[in-house]
């Protein structure tokens, strides 16, 4: 549910969900509280219907060539939800390698579009397994730019830079603190504060009262189970 809430009242912006749960979230938002959200087929078409995850869209509304896509990217009219192999307290993200860059222990995806995503449009993160291996004191390589590095680079980097939230299987986190470091916004039902702290490799900012993440309504559950993800692909990413 938290993945859908990331696009609440987003208006006519391009949703770019990367991964199964983010894709389900964007589709659910489109069908409920964010009807103006723009969705694509994952390539170059704007789609007008909400097809099940993994299925082809039935209604095509327009063409989104690369130049038009970059125009949206460069003016903040796109909200990306990416994954993260590592994240630090400032929101710096790594999806490239683990270990020293010159001789890494593990080669991952590579930098991809993370720098331009984070500097030019809102970027949230989805982490299916919240652990100290992901939430680290210092990322091994900066791919997505965090608040500290954007501030150091100046106005050109901060104009459209925004990291709305980080969603994991344990909690929702954001950077709404005076020094723009990671804060616990809500706990998922059944999760304790101690569990989140133990699974995070740095001290989190924690408000005096931490609410629970909103659970889906009966209507939202029906849409997820019967319309958006009837094949149950979500279970491969996060166990119920």
UniProtKB/TrEMBL annotation:
Keywords: Transferase. Transmembrane segments: none annotated. One of its GO terms (molecular function) is CoA-transferase activity. Belongs to the 3-oxoacid CoA-transferase subunit B family. PANTHER family: ACETATE COA-TRANSFERASE YDIF (PTHR43293), CHOLESTEROL RING-CLEAVING HYDROLASE IPDB SUBUNIT (PTHR43293:SF3). This is CoA-transferase. The lineage of its organism: Bacteria, Bacillati, Actinomycetota, Actinomycetes, Kitasatosporales.
